[in-house]
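[recover] target loaded
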């Protein structure tokens, strides 16, 4: 069974994440389903 995704704010604001995996599709998908108005501090 696949491991459950655990969202972290850095998944959508840290340049290192974009450099490592590209666009964080899984993070944005999780946000749309679970917390569409989340406030993320850079």
């Amino acid at each position: 069974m696949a491991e459950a995704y655990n969202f972290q704010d850095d998944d959508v604001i840290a340049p290192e994440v974009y450099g490592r995996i590209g666009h964080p599709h899984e993070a944005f998908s999780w946000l749309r389903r679970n917390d569409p108005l989340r406030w993320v501090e850079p």
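[recover] notes: Residues 2 and 26 are 13 Å apart (CA to CA).
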